[in-house]
Amino acid sequence: MSMQPRGLLASFEYLDSTLDAIKTLRQERIRKFTVYSPLPEHHLEAAMGYGQSPVRVFALVGGLTGAAAGFAFTSFTSMEWPLVTGGKPILSIPAYVVIAFELTILFGALATVIGLFLLSRLPHLGPLLIYDPEFTAGRFGIHVFASPEELEKARRILEEHHPAEVREDREGVGRA
Amino acid sequence: MATATRAKRGALTHPDIGSYSEVNRDVLGILSRPGKGWWFLFVLAAVGVGVFFASWGWQIYQGIGVTGLNTPVGWGVYITTFVFWVGIAHSGTLISAILFLFRAPWRQSVYRLAEAMTVFAVMTAGLFPLIHVGRVWHAYWLIPYPNSRFLWPNFRSPLVWDVFAVTTYFTVSSVFFYLGTIPDLAAARDQAVGLRRRLYKVISLGWRGTDREWHHFSKAYIFLAALATPLVLSVHSVVSWDFAMSIVPGWHATVFAPYFVAGAIFSGVAMVITLAVPMRKIFGLESYLTIKHFDALAKLCLLTSLIVLYAYLTEFFMAWYSGEAIERASFWNRLFGHYWWASWTMLICNGIVPVLLWFKRVRHSIAALFVISIFINIGMWFERYVIIVTSLSHEYEPFAWGVYRPSLTEMGILLGSFAWFGFWFLLFTRLLPPVAIAELKEVLPLPYRRAAGEGEAR
Predict the structure, then answer these.
(1) How far apart (Å, rounded) are the C-alpha atoms in residues B5 and B443?
(2) Burial letters B112-147, b for 16+ CB under 10 A, else e
(3) Which of A168, B241, B320, B409 is 20 to 30 Å from the Cα of B204, by its Cα?
(4) φ, ψ of residue A111 in degrees (nearest 5)
(5) Contact state of A116 with B216 under an 8 Å Cβ cutoff
(6) Beta-carbon separation of B155 and A95 below 8 A
(7) Does A36 contact B209 at a Cβ distance shorter than 8 Å?
(8) What is the pTM of this model?
């Protein structure tokens, strides 16, 4: 059984070449590709057509949970053994605001990180098969994963946009 | 156009950096060549850590009596140093989170170092409550849990708030710090060999810089910055309430929270300068930490110095204007009493010396900034000393007045805490990329083929 190439990995020196390649690929209805970048670049995000990241839902839910937990924790423990200190009411809400606030931040931050890990599928435990160390240094990359016919079209598009290198991945291991 | 302004920005902040790969080469190079300067400082720090633990060990062995703490001054060098280190931490979060939200173009070069400073400063500060409580094996009593009679702590107490504030701050700033380093750890992984490569591979979590990773990462980063911003303002406010919620003359003031926050940022920015100057020299980071960056830090110092000076004057004014005899006596005692030298050190170092920063020539002289930053560090330590010790030593009843003299053990722990902080910081410069690689690239000119011209290297 001959091994057909199932993926193409192109690396680019220039951002505009990368952006043009992404746009053309999308115009040609090739959607299964991954873009690599050495820096967070909003042009790339826009070209990929990303909307809002659901990370914000995690942040909100985490924060609200923290606030509720802070108030619940302080209130219920105070009520469980009602002990007047300093002549203050058993439920001293203004004092509990401080703790509720800190827990809002704590839970919100931790939930954001959990959200990030889930959504971006980190940690990525497998070996770095479809990858080039240049992607953390200075190059941008596009990995197309497609059927043989589509792949020929993709190769043509990628090569039109002045890549530094186009590699085939014969095994087609994984979807980067 | 966005591109044009970006190119201009890059040219403005880092004119000597040519390409993205150059950033990786320069920053990751630091990880592999320690140099004599680094080793000298590391040995110095290790000796200091020895002094720290020897002093603490002596205190644990002998009991809290080896300190100068007694009635009426029950809070001394330990609490002073605790507040000092918590304060140092603040500017790290200011630079990394608040300036991130404000999109300050100069933060990229310094923020990693400032964030590391935050984490290690909170780590140092966190030891002081444990030292201060004396019987350290009971330190877990600080954590809110029901005691043997199922009684929970008093959540109306600012000391309990402080436990929540400081632990939250440590957790969130560590997470923020680690998250920011992940793409750079991946960059380190891609260049390293052997054991280091395996280490970076694990701690970079297999980061590849894909579109999906960056998309969620950038958003998560914004949310963490937005959460860290109120946190940084709250933590030192809560620390200030440890004092302000009491009725001790000299402490019981509503101005304390903003006053402490401004002071914290002031001292922290000074500490960033203190750390950045030798780092720049030892690691040859001249094209990354440019005069522009130091100029911006100096301006931040100047601004916060003015706020702090204003707060000092407000305190004195309020003491006089309140008509409260005891409050007046307390502040008179500050300036002309037993601790006059500490108060004047504070006023001169924090109020007078930073006036020099009005001059551009001073702001553009690295040596001058370094010296001024040391003055500010000393002044800010004394500020906390003055607030804590002079107020406690001179409360209401004359027969309850007293004098506190720090013992040798306390001095050992104070000096040792700087070594402990330095020890971690030095390890950080060798193990993690001390300049943010990926984020620095954001302020460099974008690599456009059309601008570069066909075939021309950018």
Answers:
(1) 10
(2) bbbbbbbbbbbbbbbbbbbbbebeeeeeeebebeee
(3) A168
(4) -65, -35
(5) yes
(6) yes
(7) yes
(8) 0.91
